TrEMBL record, chains A, B:
Pfam families: Response_reg. This is Response regulator. The lineage of its organism: Bacteria, Pseudomonadati, Bacteroidota, Cytophagia, Cytophagales. The keyword Phosphoprotein applies. The modification 4-aspartylphosphate is found at residue 74. CDD domains: REC_Rcp-like. Keywords: Phosphoprotein. SUPFAM superfamilies: CheY-like.
Length: 159, 159
């Protein structure tokens, strides 16, 4: 890994912002702790339902506040239809919102939940980890992939 | 990481198949070597243009051959319009093909190339690594994310 690349990554992480949509308070505690441990420097915005999520994204656009580069969406909020509705709203929005990668994370590993989510345009579907160490691994992988490897849609404006 | 999870991952990797669309023969050599080193067990299908790629995918469906779970697409084949045309064909196809995540990898880090690719439904956009070690890291990250963490659309039928 070259020095130049490492510098870029540091800059990327300094500007990392994730929107997390999760209605389960136990999971929110786990997620917050795991992010602090494995994803230092990321700013996480947490909301508990789909209306708050879409309102937050629209407000960012209206007020010029920097949008999150990644959205983590719990599918069952509390029904899967709530998660899918939000996914549809995001994917049918204007490009600055519709281009943000959405990762669904859910307790469900039902085939229909997975395939319907991909059909509606989710970037990837992750079954929620079971224990805390796996949550830490999960966020580490997320960071390695989305911030150390991928060029996100807003790569020019942020860095 | 639990034993159960490790077993699942081994099964996943045993069934891993990637379609690589790349017209640069030097890069194909690097990719093949890097995959052998960091992504043992994966079966990679390589084609050099968009027509061969879509024909391969259609043949899989028609003959019942297992589809790849991930498509790596070089954008400039040799023009970016070639890559985008293939992306459009994939994304407008029937679900078994349109749901396969497509990762664009390209030498270009131009903002327009990145945002237009996301607008056309690419899952993620990666600027090609510069040296061989970075290619190995790149495939390691790809494996960790897509095979160790994500549930891919075909997760029921393959495992």
């Amino acid at each position: 890994m070259s020095l130049v690349k490492s510098k870029t990554n540091t800059n990327r992480l300094r500007n990392a912002r994730i929107l997390i949509v999760e209605d389960n308070s136990d999971h929110l505690v786990l997620i917050t702790k795991a992010i602090q441990q494995s994803f230092t420097g990321v700013e996480s915005v947490m909301v508990t339902d789909e209306h708050a999520a879409i309102n937050y994204l629209r407000e960012c656009v209206q007020t010029g506040v920097r949008l999150p580069q990644l959205i983590l969406l719990d599918l069952y909020l509390p029904e899967r239809q709530n998660g899918w509705n939000l996914l549809k709203m995001i994917k049918s929005h204007t490009p600055e919102i519709s281009q943000i990668p959405v990762v669904i994370f859910s307790n469900s590993d039902h085939h229909e939940d997975i395939t319907e989510s991909y059909d509606l345009g989710v970037t990837s579907y992750v079954v929620k980890p079971i224990n805390y160490d796996e949550w830490v691994d999960y966020f580490q992988t997320l960071k390695d992939y989305w911030w150390e490897t991928v060029s996100l849609p807003d790569s020019r404006s942020t860095y």
